[in-house]
Amino acid sequence: MADNIIQIKIAVQNSGLRKRFEEIIASTAGYHVQSSGEKHRPDLLILDVGTDTEKKLGIIESLFNSNSVGDVFLTSKNIEQSVLLKAMRIGAKEFFSQPLDEKEVRRALKRFKTKRKKTDHPDNAKSGQIIDVIGSKGGVGTTTIAVNLAVSMAEKRNAQSVALLDMNMLFGDIPIFLALKPNYHWGEITRDITRLDATFLMNILSKHPSGVHVLPSPSHLNGDRAVTPETVEHLLSVMQGMFDFVVIDSGQSINKTSLRILEMSNEILLVSLLSLPYLANTNKLLTSFAKFQHLQKEHIKIVINRYLKKSQVSLKDAEDAINREIFWTIPNDYKTTMSAINQGKALPQFAAKSAVTRNLKELANALASKEEKGKKRRWRFLKG
Question: Residue 310 phi/psi, 5° resolution?
Fold first, then answer.
């Protein structure tokens, strides 16, 4: 498709209204209305505000923040002046009342095209980093690490957009850890993966007060189609275009879908404990991963959770057992961590000054820092 063709996404539920927009756009040269299956970042989103205006305004703001759209035009049967002003402050450029005035829509499209010609508008969609947190065995704390890593990244001074994806295939715990009551989960996506784009996904994601956008796993058996490697690849590709960082809680399952996640990940945090059974399993996983050509050794980083300095198994013992350096150690603070979980709060909110919170913030800084990428540095945080 020609680069100078303006890509338009129409997010309108009313079929008659949508058809009317399509007719007007089709009669104007230089525009292409995207179908539901197209993944390209739209230059222009036309959105029907409907009745749930606050939710739609939140979606618009999130789309702009994640650079998932160029500009936004709004339409509605009735809208309060205060809501319209708020929408314009967020960044919406035009508003169309209903029924549509064809001349008004044409003039708006012409203004948009003129503005686009005057501005060198490179494709600056994001290419987010995927961080996969996976356990060597069950119970090592992948959810605790993934949740608090994502929140720590979102709350950094130079905060960037962060998404948190729960890929525990059944009954993930992320909503409990963050006291969220999500209306949707990734099972919604498996019903029709062709519909998935930034606008649709932003409607499904739940936003935590820290700024993290959360996509949980199904909370019950509901007959949704099983997630496939192709489905998760499509999902992660869309999320990479929306967020600077996508943190995944993969639990400890290893199957074709989790392997696809590993292949797409920029960083893999393999979590273990200073215990011989856990280290033995870690070694087995590392041996298995070495057989997959797409998994680069330097991307797999060993994290020891619940670290105690006086453990019977030392860090050197662990490194000898797995024949790998330990990338990071997270201090054991069971009381603080469990209290935070029971209250549905992330550690930065619950105990901002605790050693374990500081440690996870340092981990977030280490993973987010561009300066540290490619450096062979042995990261350890042994306080606590």
Answer: -95, 25
Q: Domain containing 39: what range?
A: 6-118
| CA distances in angstroms from 299 to 162, 226, 264, 363, listed in the order given | 20, 28, 11, 15
CA–CA dist 123, 171 (Å, integer): 38
Per-residue pLDDT reduced to its tens digit, 45-66: 999 988 788 888 888 888 888 8
Instruction: Give the contacts of 301 (CB within 8 A, at least 6 positions apart).
Output: 267, 268, 269, 270, 327, 328
Nearest to 337 by CA among 310, 360, 356, 358: 356
Q: Are residues 277 and 339 in the same domain?
A: yes
In a domain, 382, yes or no: no
pLDDT in tens, 304-355: 999 998 899 999 999 999 999 999 999 999 999 999 999 999 999 999 999 9
Q: pLDDT tens digit string along 133-146?
A: 999 998 999 999 99
CA distance 250 to 76: 41
Interval 227-253 mean pLDDT: 88
pLDDT digits (tens, 9 = 90+) for 150-162: 999 998 867 779 9
Domain annotation covers residue 383? no
Does residue 22 share a domain with residue 94?
Answer: yes
The interaxial angle of helices 355-368 and 334-342, nearest 10 deg, is 80
Q: What is the CATH number of the domain that holds 66?
A: 3.40.50.2300
> For position 323, which CATH number holds?
3.40.50.300
Last residue of a domain, one of 118, 140, 162: 118
Residue 337's pLDDT is: 96
| Alpha-carbon span 301 to 329, nearest angstrom | 11
Query: And the tokens for 259?
Result: 């392997």
User: Are residue 246 and residue 343 in the same domain, yes or no?
Assistant: yes
